[in-house]
Amino acid sequence: MVDIIEDIDDWRRRFSDWLQRIGNKSLDNIDGDYPFVRNRRSPFTPARRALPMLNLAVISSSGAYIDGTKPFDTEGIKGDLTYREIPIEVGAEDLRYSARGYDPVDVQQDMNSQIPIERLLEFERNGIIGQLNPVFWSIMGFIPDAAAVVDELAVELVARLSRYEVQAALLIPASPLCHQTMGLVARAIEADGIPTMVISVVKDITIDVHPPRAGYYNGKPGSVSGKPKFPEHQRRILDESLRLIEPMDQPGIRKLVVELESQVEAARGER
């Protein structure tokens, strides 16, 4: 069995040293001294159903929560290990964001740039996916304590996905550090027998954490599932990422061609 964090004792020592170096200062970004997780292998679960037959879950690390409910903690050194279970019927106007490590301007303008519920409901209606799970899960993915992600948050999320009989999970990080958090969560979900896909715009962190499956393109944190108010861009990223779930027969990160297509459109003056 593959560990979610390989050489975890060594990582704990490096993290403890890092905490001592930074003291009690509040962080909005991670510096180059942070001890990123480095894995060499990954758990892997082959897709047992075709995409049009899957119950697909979404996990977003944008820190979304319903207006009037408790926001995520954006001050703690080790991060907030809670999650929010949000019905997909909740509209964009009812969501707020505890943004840490990324600029929320894009997701505030268009939730589909980080939580592509409208696009995935289109996919459901068009038969691209079988069903979009009736709730999505939101976390505040800026969590420096990677071991706590594995020991607490990932365990709870895996239990909730199993409760809903999810058959595949799409994970969408928001900040650079979120790429580590979501990669670890994906590893835990996959180890429990559910295929996953992580969309990445920070390739080096994704390679280091080694999620089972990832689709990478040259995007930016804060709008990982597509540019705001640009539905076609969002559709292309999601379609290409999701269609990788079934044919991939081993762990890996694949380059999405959406970047090239978008550049061609820009050269033509298309939007």
Topology diagram in text:
Layout (H helix, E strand, L loop, with lengths): L7 H15 L32 E6 L3 E3 L16 E5 L7 E3 L7 H5 L7 H9 L5 E2 L2 E5 L6 H18 L4 E5 L3 H16 L4 E5 L2 H7 L3 E4 L14 H12 L9 E4 L2 H11 L3
Parallel strand pairs: 1-5, 1-6, 1-7, 7-8, 8-9, 9-10
Antiparallel strand pairs: 2-4, 3-6
Classified in CATH, the superfamily is Response regulator
What's the gyration radius in Å? 17 Å
What is the number of domains? 1
CATH topology: the name is: Rossmann fold
The helicity comes to: 25-40%
Task: Name the overall outline.
Answer: globular
In N-to-C order, the SSE pattern is: HEEEEHHEEHEHEHEHEH
**Biggest beta sheet attributes:** 8 strands, mixed
Question: Would you identify the CATH architecture?
Answer: 3-Layer(aba) Sandwich
- Total DSSP E strands: 10
The N- to C-terminal Cα distance equals: 46 Å
Classification by helices and strands? alpha/beta
Q: Taking all residues together, what is the mean pLDDT?
A: 94
Strand content bin: 15-25%
Number of helices: 8
CATH uppermost class: Alpha Beta
Low-confidence stretches: none
Protein model, in words:
With 271 residues, the protein is an alpha/beta fold. Helix content is 34%, strand content 15%. It contains eight helices and ten strands. It has helices at 8-22, 105-109, 117-125, 146-163, 176-191, 203-209, 231-242, 258-268, and strands at 55-60, 64-66, 83-87, 95-97, 131-132, 135-139, 168-172, 196-200, 213-216, 252-255. The strands form two sheets. Strands 1, 3, 5, 6, 7, 8, 9 and 10 form an eight-stranded mixed beta sheet that branches. Strands 2-4 form a two-stranded antiparallel sheet. Strand 9 (213-216), helix 7 (231-242) and strand 10 (252-255) form a beta-alpha-beta unit. The longest helix has 18 residues, at 146-163. It starts with 7 loop residues before the first helix and ends with a helix.
